[in-house]
Amino acid sequence: MTKLALHAAVAAILAAFAFSAMAQERGRAGLLSGVTRLPPITLSVGKPLAEKPYELESGKYYRIEITSDGTGELAIRGPEFFRNVWINEVVINDIEVRPLGVDSIEFDSAGTARISFVPIRPGTFELMIPGSTGESQRAVFNVK
């Protein structure tokens, strides 16, 4: 075996070990276990956003639908939430958007936005209707 062939074989073995270690790390982070679908958030004038707080684990992959029933022009805002999750995509009318960041989503009429994300930092975060003060006008995410 030539030196070049020996170096190539060693490099291939090292790459296989590195790939295996990366796959194990992603598996521990929950990314290989599939998506967890969360109960949807519904935007409707005078109605609560969520029935109870969402209990999440950092490193797991989640999907949530945010739906407006069209009873008013409503938005949902959560800069702290969005800064502490990695957003895979936001899907609106079968159009997939892969943003670098989000602050809020506004609905001018009825529709649905589906967000796929991975929480990256433990804590308690909220999505809320801007300008509202009522507890029912916010969705709470407890990330462990």
Summed up:
The protein is an alpha/beta fold and 144 residues long. The chain has helices at residues 3-28, 79-83; strands spanning 35-37, 41-43, 54-56, 61-68, 74-77, 85-92, 95-97, 104-107, 111-119, 123-128, 138-143. The radius of gyration is 20 Å and the shape is globular.
What are the main properties of this structure?
Immunoglobulin-like, alpha/beta, 40% strand, three-stranded mixed sheet, 144 residues, single chain
Would you write up a description of this structure?
The protein is α/β, with parallel strands linked by helices and 144 residues long. The protein has 2 domains: 1-33; 35-143, Cupredoxins -  blue copper proteins (Immunoglobulin-like), CATH 2.60.40.420. The protein contains 2 helices and 11 strands; from the N terminus they run αβββββαββββββ. It has helices spanning 3-28, 79-83; strands spanning 35-37, 41-43, 54-56, 61-68, 74-77, 85-92, 95-97, 104-107, 111-119, 123-128, 138-143. Strands 1, 2, 4, 6, 7 and 9 form a 6-stranded mixed β-sheet that branches. A 3-stranded mixed β-sheet has the order 3-11-10. The longest helix has 26 residues, at 3-28. The termini are far apart. The relative contact order is 0.21.
Overall 3D form: globular
Identify the CATH architecture of the largest domain: Sandwich
In whole angstroms, the N-to-C terminal distance is 53 Å
Task: Give the uncertain stretches in residue-range form.
Answer: 6-12, 14-24
Sheet having the most strands: 6 strands, mixed
Tell me roughly what share of residues is in helical segments: 10-25%
* Count of extended strands: 11
Find the CATH topology of the largest domain. Answer: Immunoglobulin-like
Whole-number average pLDDT?
Answer: 81
